[in-house]
Amino acid sequence: MSFVEYSEFIQEGDVAIIFLGHESMMAVNVQHGAQTQTRYGVIRHSTDLIGQRFGSKVTCSKGGWVYVLHPTPELWTLNLPHRTQILYTTDIANITLMLELKPGSVVCESGTGSGSLSHAIIRTIAPTGHLHTVEFHAQRAERAAEEFCRHKVAHLVTVRNQDVCKDGFGVTGVADAVFLDIPSPWEAICHAKRAIKKQGGRLCSFSPCIEQVQRTCEAMLDQGFEEVCTLEVLLRVQDVRSVTMSLPDFGPDDLTDPAQATSDPAPSNASVTLKTAIPPKEMAGHTGYLTFATKTRE
Amino acid sequence: MANDGDDPDAAFRVRNGDYVVLKRGDVYKSVQIQSKRKVVFEKQWFFLDNAVGQLYGTTFEVESGGTLKPQAPKGTQNAKEAGTDNRNIVDDGRSQKLTKDDIESLKEKGLKGQEIIQHLIDNSTTFRDKTEFAQEKYIKKKKKKYESSITILKPTARILALMYHGREWGKVCHLRYDTLAQMLTLGNIRAGSKVIVFETCAGLVLGAVMERLGGYGTVIQMYPGGGPTRAGMESFGFPPHFHDTLYEFPLCKMNALLGGKLDLESKDMDTNHSSGSPDESSDRIEDPSESGPREEASPLTQEMETSSEVPGVKVDEEDRKERERRREMKVRSKSINSEKKLKMEEKRRKLALAAAQLEGRNADGLVIASRFHPCPVLLGLLKFLSPSRPFVVYCQYREPLIECYTKLREQGGVVNLHLSDSWLRHYQVLPNRTHPVLLMSGGGGYLLTGTTVAMDAPKTSGQPKTEEPSAKRMKLQEAEGSA
């Protein structure tokens, strides 16, 4: 198992995603002798997981069953241990496309946070690209580096424990794209510019507050970035449902024929059942503003 | 990136034959650089010959005669005087002293856009009274109208998705760029994967998938009718080795492939059959749109030496030898037909290769975005995926995806099903004037995503459902109901 390559069978040391049912999942580190408790009973790694095919059904001790899935950056995003607020797949997808990431891209990112975006970037730029990720919190940087190792992507990423606003990304003129998710992105725009290749590249800043966006845009324009563009994207999930709607009873339609009216009363419980999709009562209405810009050739 | 030759920027220069994107403001157009070829863009015509040898990202001024001249970095125009509000500005249509004819004559004199705008400002009686913000807006508007500069860019999925969404919405089934972004990410499209693509989005989705594969892995394009549509993919200008990763398979042969009855010999038989009337056969072969249905209709299945169960590459190699032998014989007898036969051989060879890729039923990803009803396509193509792999289906409409969702729930073999669409809003960010852009896209289409899982043995043999423990089924339904 690796986050940049599928394998067929589950092995010792892998991360596996246990799918418990609608909207319920958990990530486990597969180890000989280990056990995982679920609401359907115990999963014994040695017998239930190791050697099984990813995607297969596993019967738990209480007789219920679950599916074991191969990890992907998207499943990881939903199941990772949160050390910070994380970026979710909808924003990540747009960041990836708008930063023009592809195999071979060199990317700088700060902060690393819980590594949600990092995993998605690494997946896209493998096998020839590289991610330089900067995190000012020492323990978070360490934990992220450990995760990259366990997920077999360490060769594609360099984690640096420093403050991007003061010390930059630790590399100069190598990046095709830079991503910022920090409290004061405007202080790091000059470092972003320095990190990007002289042929130019793309920049993205993620900020929850419009005041941050305002200052960041100003800094981008001051530093000569072009095509500055701010957008917001939200995922609207639709729940597929079978709904039943009653039909009203208008009474008999032919009043001139009292015989019919009495003999054939309209059924009072008439209804129509249809398949539809409804929005949830509540949804994430704001994650953050994404500001993109282009650095043109020097 | 590696530099070739003496010029460190060689890889960043426009070459003849390159596919490039022209940009002016927010408008894009994809073209191929061809010498002495007239290009029309934003009501202007010009030749791209002068762009050859220039760096990507260069902005050009269109000069008289349609020649391009690289533009020096522009200076910004600063307003010197400005009003505080618009209380003194009256819309009487007399604020601009220059008439339309005056402006035309300025243009004829060969004045540049910038100079014309300066004339307009000098002859505007209200410009000085406008607020600084309004002045900025005025200049921006006039720039759009009179500046004739274009920028030449290297195509990317981002730019082409923006271009198609902006200019040829209908051609890409109304697929919005952020929805394409979701598809590529949720489909886990990455280097080394084997991805099945079925799209009628001009080849944009195919190209975007190939960009993410970066020349590593395999794409099998399923196509309806006579041949695959690839204009959008060609616009990416991929290096030749990318095309080696691309296979194509006609949907009309899917039943045959699934039933293990794909007959890779029928074409040859056909040729033998119709060799008596070369005119007729040549007509058929030259029109690819006809060959699809014809193949399907061909009842000739006598040559059984190629079973679809045999690993594909071997089939192909044996095939080729056999075909070569046969071809040699035929070439001697009928030289007129040889070229057409070669073409046909090529087509059949491709079919065999694609079939071999599909037969393993071990694809890593499935991406569907078409004008066809997604349900049969999805149910058919899911069979070619390994377990624990993501799939994404795009549809402009919601209802067909609801149907897909319902069918998949009945049939099983998938988990993590989600029906969604996305909402996208752009912002104007300016000092003290930050707000959402007045117009926004009303919708970018719908996505159904999910993950394949192993089918239970009895399920695969035709009887879906009824297999799951009833207690669990109820629990699951309950969970859904409360979710």
Please give a quick description of this structure:
The complex is a heterodimer of chains A (298) and B (483). Helices cover 25% and strands 30% of the residues of chain A.
Terminal-residue CA separation of chain A:
42 Å
Which structural class matches the secondary elements of chain A?
alpha/beta
SS-based structural class of chain B? alpha/beta
Helix content range of chain A: 25-40%
* Global shape of chain B: globular
Number of helices of chain B: 18
- What is the assigned CATH homologous superfamily of the largest domain in chain A? Vaccinia Virus protein VP39
What low-confidence regions of chain A span 5 or more consecutive residues with pLDDT below 50? none
Give the fraction of residues assigned to helices of chain B.
25-40%
* Termini separation of chain B: 49 Å
Radius of gyration of chain A: 26 Å
Q: Kindly report the spatial arrangement of strands forming the biggest sheet of chain A.
A: 9-8-7-10-11-14-12-13
- Biggest pleated sheet of chain A: 8 strands, mixed
Q: Residue-averaged pLDDT of chain B, rounded? A: 80
User: Looking at CATH, which topology of the domain at 13-154 in chain B would you report?
Assistant: Vcp-like ATPase, Chain A, domain 2
The CATH architecture of the domain at 13-154 in chain B comes to Roll
Number of helices of chain A: 9
**Greatest contact between two chains:** A-B, 71 and 68 residues
Describe the protein's architecture and organization.
The complex is a heterodimer of chains A (298) and B (483). Helices cover 25% and strands 30% of the residues of chain A. Chain A has helices at 45-49, 73-79, 89-98, 116-125, 138-150, 164-167, 189-195, 210-222, 258-263, and strands at residues 15-21, 24-29, 35-38, 41-44, 57-59, 65-69, 106-110, 130-134, 157-160, 177-180, 201-207, 226-246, 271-278, 289-295. By secondary structure, chain A is of the alpha/beta class. The radius of gyration of chain A is 26 Å and the shape is flat. Chain A has two domains: 15-71, Vcp-like ATPase, Chain A, domain 2, CATH 3.10.330; 81-234 and 285-295, Vaccinia Virus protein VP39 (Rossmann fold, 3-Layer(aba) Sandwich), CATH 3.40.50.150. The two termini of chain A are 42 Å apart. In chain A, strands 9-8-7-10-11-14-12-13 form an eight-stranded mixed β-sheet, sandwiched between helices. A four-stranded antiparallel β-sheet of chain A has the order 2-1-6-5, with helices on one face. Chain A contains nine helices and 14 strands. Chain B is of the alpha/beta class. Chain B has a domain at 13-154: Vcp-like ATPase, Chain A, domain 2 (Roll). Chain B has 18 helices and 15 strands. In chain B, the strands form three sheets. An eight-stranded mixed β-sheet of chain B has the order 10-9-8-11-12-15-13-14, sandwiched between helices. In chain B, a hairpin with a 6-residue loop joins strand 13 and strand 14. The longest helix of chain B is centred in the C-terminal third of the chain and has 22 residues, at 312-333. Residues 75-79, 267-315 and 458-483 of chain B have low confidence and may be disordered. At the A-B interface, strand 6, helix 3, helix 4, helix 8 and strand 12 of A face helix 4, helix 5, helix 6, helix 16 and strand 13 of B.
